Amino acid sequence: MQKSGWLLYGATGYTGKLMVKLAVSKGMKPILAGRTEAPLKELAESFGLSYLVFSLDSVDEVAEKVSPFQIVMNCAGPFIRTAENMVKACIKAKTHYLDITGEIEVFERVKSFDVQAKEAGIILMSGTGFDVVPTDCAAAYLHQKLPDATHLQLAFTSIGGSISHGTMQTMVENLGSSGAVRENGKIVPKPTGHKSMTVDFGRKKRFCMTIPWGDVSTAHHTTGIPNIETYTAVSKSSHTFMKFQIIFNPIMRSAWVKNRVKAYVTKNITGPTEEQNQTGRSLVWGKAWNAAGQSEEVRIEGPEGYKLTAETSVYIVSELLKGTDKKGYQTPAGMFGYKLILQIDGTRLY
Fold first, then answer.
1. What is the 3-state secondary structure (H, E, C) of 254-286?
2. Nearest to 172 by CA among 75, 74, 252
3. What is the percentage of the chain residues whose pLDDT exceeds 90?
4. Where are the CATH 3.40.50.720 domain residues in the chain?
5. What is the pLDDT of residue 47?
6. In this predicted model, what pLDDT tens digit does every residue of 141-160 receive, in sequence order?
7. pTM attached to this predicted model
8. Which numeric CATH code is attached to 133-304?
């Protein structure tokens, strides 16, 4: 069977809708997919697109659905629940797999299918959006400037943005979980917020604390740097609160608490407004240093995070549709280089 085009699974979510709108504006016609027909049908008809309805419960059935396509873009989170079966189906169908996760565990799990993906002749790439394209590009840039770097710190913040329903649901899934860093090449659990510092993002200086961001996995794959910490901007009061997590983490892990928070998210969290999408900005900072004490820094400024996710994801899809000789697990900057982020209008690296 001759494969063509791409399937967008999870199209009715906040980021999925942004991606659909952007893809259509560029003359692309993804096939939309998801679990629930009514919203999927409405979205597809509004853009003149076709759609498919299926769950991810059966790998064989999913493989049959995705087999006609060159690429599947998975936007259905939490990815800890959706990625594995879709990856297995894509390997079986010999269809490239992409997603927009930011979860370390998902990156590591997808990476574990590298050999099978190479045998199938396909690409597996997680984190094609704000998680983790700009930070991955920062890591790749710093590694090019300082090839013998032994330590890497990455931080991010935003100006004028908000958070989506899907992102919040993923955060709820991880309530009570530990943070993580990479030490001497291995991922090591650490309390979230165990370190803090003030970061100069260029336009803003902000107080930041460590969080388990996807680059703990991906930046090591891209650069080989053995020690990696990832930070985000928070209020100092939030950081103080995190110091007591050993007390409340067991409570936050309970199903009762998570279900109550999920109900609140479903009712109240919708995502950034159109104005926030257009005017918000995302900021990234990175620093690498080597054993001799030499160091390099980089800053990246780009569109609001969800807008950037749609832009980078659609760009990566468009590049893969042209064909590639590469196979197996890839990271965004590992495959396309640090200048990947500069392909997006409104970005700069300095």
1. CHHHHHHHHHHHHHHCCCCCHHHHHHCEEEEEE
2. 252
3. 76
4. 6-129+307-342
5. 98
6. 999 999 999 999 999 999 88
7. 0.90
8. 3.30.360.10
